[in-house]
Input
Amino acid sequence: MITIMDNTETTEKTKSCDFRMTRQRRVILAELDSPGQHPTADEVYSRVRKVLPNISLGTVYRNLEILSQTGMVKKLHIGSEQRRYEKNQKRHYHAHCVMCGRVSDIPSDPFGDIDKTARENSRFDITGHELVFEGLCPKCNDDNQ
Amino acid sequence: MITIMDNTETTEKTKSCDFRMTRQRRVILAELDSPGQHPTADEVYSRVRKVLPNISLGTVYRNLEILSQTGMVKKLHIGSEQRRYEKNQKRHYHAHCVMCGRVSDIPSDPFGDIDKTARENSRFDITGHELVFEGLCPKCNDDNQ
DNA sequence: CTTGGTGCAAAGGTTTTGCACGGGG
DNA sequence: CCCCGTGCAAAACCTTTGCACCAAG
Output
């Protein structure tokens, strides 16, 4: 029999939201575990299929959506490219290579002061911001010389 | 006969890039002229069709893409929603209503210092950033009370 | 048991593209 | 005149969804 409880806050969160921790969901979460990753749904799908060959792409999408609603996973919208996902973890921003599309983490505390500036210049009730830095990754920068 | 030259920097840019200023292209640009707008390709399409009933959606997409390459138009990537476009104009950021999807301009000088911070924390050659503020627009904020 | 989750496949929505023709410069 | 741009329609792409069955709790 498969152990379903793993007494992490992850499972706690799922339980409290009336979500079942299915095999599929657990494997998807596990795939997102290593930091510095920002896979697309399709990338998650092909990785997870190595463990669960019969999982469907629809299930991957449904789970990523549900997990992002619980806050365990974060949806990323970077450029006009395909949606990406990451495990929600310590505060950081992202850098996006305009040449190859690579996405890297940039560790940083959130810039709270820019929200304040925005509030002063608009009638919106600003709650936060999405910020992506654009530029060249080290590799493309070298190739470019 | 239709006047093709209009001796604006717009036409100059087009000429220098070997782009022809066609009737379609001119009407699309004109539609984007009033500030504070961020229409989707489809919205541009339906507006432009009032002037050019036979224009095709493909032409609208092709032109918005070309115009964004010349720098005359800016593509906006806001949340996971449909792509939006605006005429490139004085420096500002955008606020996105998480409830109704509305997009508003927020006048502001660019935050150059955050690029500096990002540079110090990554190996990317950072050239700029995409920044969208999230919150509630005045209307949704009222409805929410 | 009950009810939410799954696999499958089809549908949906947005954006791109191949092609033959037309018009800009 | 040349060849870029256009209209049309199909294709490509990404994401969502309906449905019958399955399995978590």
In short: The two ends of chain B are 57 Å apart (CA to CA). The CA atoms of residues 16 and 70 of chain B lie 10 Å apart.
